[in-house]
Amino acid sequence: MNTTTTVVKPQPAKKPQVQKEDAMWLQKELLAKNYGELASARADNRKVSATFVPGNLNELLMCFNFARSLPETNALQNGMRKKSGKMIMDAERDGHSEDVCTYVKSDLGMMMGGEIGPTGEVLPKPDILLLSYTGCFTFMKWFELIRHKYGCETVMLHVPYQAEGRIAPNMREYVVKQLKETVIPTLERVSGVKFDIDRLRQYMRESAKAEEDLVAVLQSAKNRPSPIDGYFGAVYYIGPIFTAFRGTPEATQYYHVLRGEIEQRMREGKGPITPDGEMGEEKYRLVVEGPPNWTSFREFWKMFYDEGAVVVSSTYAKVGGLYDFGFRHDPENPLESLADYCLGCYTNLNLPSRVDMICKYIDEYQADGLLINSIKSCNSFSAGQLLILREVEKRTGKPAAFIETDLVDPRYFSAANVKNRLESYFQMVKQKRGSATGEPMVISNAARH
Amino acid sequence: MRCFIGIDLGSTTTKAVVIDENQNILGRGITNSRSNYDTAATIAKQEAMVNGRFHLFRQALGETRALNGLLDTFINQLERDFRAEQYLEQLADLEETCQRSLASANFGDAGAGVKETLTEVFRRLTAEAPALFAPGAKRKSDFFRDIAGSQYLATGEVVAKEAGTRYDHLLNVFDRSIIEVENRVYSDSIRRHLLAALERSFVALPETTSRRTQVEAPIKGILDTEMEETYVVGTGYGRARLPFSKEHVRSEILCHGLGAHVMYPKTATVLDIGGQDTKAIQVDPKGIVESFQMNDRCAAGCGRYLGYIADEMNMGLHELGPMAMKSTKAVRINSTCTVFAGAELRDRLALGDKREDIMAGLHRAIILRAMSILARSGGIRDEFTFTGGVAKNEAAVKALTELVRENYGELTLNIDPDSIYTGALGGATFAWRAIVEEGKTVEARAA
């Protein structure tokens, strides 16, 4: 695994319309590499694991030489490549209701179509499903369906919910105990590789370095103008570390390059780079809760940068690991640290913790307000979002807005309506700002009749 | 004189409001949005300007007391005569266009017969026209398409039968012509129509003839006054189609919030139910929007829902409310889906429920949906202002009043008879502010 990746920038003529940073090309390379590894796993005589982004125990899986597949990432990649629509309809024809999570249906539809992955390569059937249960009950049903279809082995790590808003020692012990007694032995048996804790420590050393750089990148948005978009840009930045690369030297290198690039932009006083090039004047700074829409990702983003709106922080950029409040993978306490990682996932937090986190972001990133993109087919996380909105408005005095789209179902992105609401929101922020700075808002009563 | 204009390009209708330097409302104009926002905006604005002229006529004639005691009668007569003039011109245009469409139609030997039938239909329509604008005459709609369309269909059917012409040929010609005609703007003929209407009014009201000079002078004076389009602000769904820069465009949320505030300065919560949107808006004491919620993904419970039900019941949109008001018991309609509501309606009818009771249930269903959006936006605070096309519907208002009392207790509910113009009024107020308070200069006048 100790290969280094060089940044290969394709000729501009190849894709002249889309602007990307160097790190973005590197990220693309990594992604392609992972799909390549999965495609050749059988030929390379490698076992294949599948697991989810929140609670992804990548370092542990690497200790057993698994080729690592992440079904959510597959679904979102299919969404961005406009392939998910058909997959979802296929899954619906197979009996899955309209209300089921569209990541699940996209994945099931992909299986029905012969497991042809986002890059066009055939994905292997997994040998083990590792379910770190971190708050999304749909994950459990999802793996049940895959297990039913492929009859593959499943191992579940039960992660207690942070109902009290903190990690108690017994919660950590409970997770560590499961790792020792169930998860590791199962992974050993399925892979045929003996567990080596020093190998785990080594990966964790890499993880911690990458995490340090990622946090610096995400926190660069505290600057004005923000050199990054902490939502639309961040979903690229979190790609490697949330998926199959956390703990690899490639990821460490990627975050090092990325951090360098972002710090350079900061020094030059530049704003984020968008698919249409450098973003214009930063007019609005927002915090966003909820995942982006993937099927109209570019169009959705454009609605923001066209209006000068930059997302300075998002909760979504924390779903695969919450690092900005200090947690790092710790090679000295590897299993405890894996437990803390899972327990601390954004999806495992209770509502008050989520509200606290958003309020903190609004304050620290000097945001103008909160925008919630609620996901139509996500029952776990859409519940409570209006309460979050109300509470954040109350605590921060900043305006909040609510829109609804979907993850990868192209039928649930109504561009005209989303745009209408966003523009209304931006203008509301502007108007409120005007009134707060004492701009005259005299309204005569003469027009009454 | 300087005029500040707001245009609200809604999904169903396009509204315009003109205010003067002192923020007095001069005129309001409305037209159907068609599928052409450019024309809709131009016509709504023109209508508002014409309405503004009438406002000024009334004002001027009121000051001179030339028509003491007869002022309202005269102005109303003048307005009807003006509408009749406009209608006749459009009708003539429609006839010409229909004949042109016929020339390119493929009716074979039947063509000649259709041509004659058309001539007869339009002869009758022209003869019937004055009655449409007679005092007390009821029209289902004020839009040319609707008036001429229903007349044409009714008269056409009779004439076709008499002449032995195929009715569907007549329909075909009409369908191919109406869009062209309704997208034509007759701005050049306004002055001519007003002067012709003035003559008609003197004839219709002989008692005013003796005061002809005193009446004519101020009217002509106003006709000669330029109503300058000082600043225009557009809002609504079609706002992106408005031919001016972003500076001149505001979201309808802001416009409705401000418009409601201008109408009722103590407004804290606004509910607007339009054609495809339900908006719940919270405003601060200055009319600044604090938060808002809108229906997402689905427009059931909006104005179009009523339109659909009206179609299903084979009734006019404006007949639904009055029918529901006759209800003695509300039937519970649970559906929040427009199409399902149609199915539920037929089911209820089959079960023997009375139409008026079902209507009352449907109106309650709409308001229940609005209540949930209001709750999402932070609830209803005092004072509460209800705007939009649906606010004109008495049965919707009744259901809202009841549900507000049940859920929030006693509070002031404001409904302006002209609430459909709330967004446009907000837009006009933004236009006024841009010039008077912010010292902006005019960028674009042509809309």
Characterise the protein shown here.
The complex is a heterodimer of chains A (449) and B (447). Chain A has helices at residues 22-39, 58-62, 71-80, 84-93, 102-112, 137-150, 169-191, 197-219, 234-237, 239-242, 249-267, 297-305, 334-343, 351-364, 379-382, 385-396, 415-436; strands at residues 48-51, 67-69, 128-133, 153-158, 273-274, 277-278, 284-289, 309-314, 369-375, 400-405. In chain A, 52% of the residues are buried. Chain A has a 4-stranded parallel beta sheet with strand order 2-1-3-4, sandwiched between helices. In chain A, helix 7 (169-191) crosses helix 13 (334-343) and helix 8 packs parallel to helix 11 (249-267). By secondary structure, chain A is α/β, with parallel strands linked by helices. Among the domains of chain B are: 82-182, no CATH class; 265-415, 2-Layer Sandwich (Nucleotidyltransferase, domain 5). Helices cover 55% and strands 12% of the residues of chain B. Chain B has helices at residues 37-64, 71-103, 111-132, 144-163, 167-182, 190-204, 212-224, 252-263, 303-313, 317-325, 338-350, 355-376, 394-408, 422-437; strands at residues 2-9, 13-19, 25-32, 228-236, 269-273, 278-283, 289-294, 384-387, 413-414. In chain B, helix 1 crosses helix 7 and helix 3 crosses helix 4 (144-163). Chain B is globular, with a radius of gyration of 24 Å. The model of chain B has no long low-confidence stretch (mean pLDDT 88).
SSE blueprint:
The complex is a heterodimer of chains A (449) and B (447).
Chain A: H1 22-39, E1 48-51, H2 58-62, E2 67-69, H3 71-80, H4 84-93, H5 102-112, E3 128-133, H6 137-150, E4 153-158, H7 169-191, H8 197-219, H9 234-237, H10 239-242, H11 249-267, E5 273-274, E6 277-278, E7 284-289, H12 297-305, E8 309-314, H13 334-343, H14 351-364, E9 369-375, H15 379-382, H16 385-396, E10 400-405, H17 415-436
Parallel strand pairs in A: 1-2, 1-3, 3-4, 7-8, 7-9, 9-10
Antiparallel strand pairs in A: 5-6
Helix pairs in contact in A: 1-11, 3-5, 4-5, 7-13, 8-11, 12-17, 14-16
Chain B: E1 2-9, E2 13-19, E3 25-32, H1 37-64, H2 71-103, H3 111-132, H4 144-163, H5 167-182, H6 190-204, H7 212-224, E4 228-236, H8 252-263, E5 269-273, E6 278-283, E7 289-294, H9 303-313, H10 317-325, H11 338-350, H12 355-376, E8 384-387, H13 394-408, E9 413-414, H14 422-437
Parallel strand pairs in B: 1-4, 5-8, 8-9
Antiparallel strand pairs in B: 1-2, 2-3, 5-6, 6-7
Helix pairs in contact in B: 1-2, 1-7, 2-3, 2-5, 2-6, 3-4, 4-5, 8-14, 9-11, 10-12, 10-13, 12-13
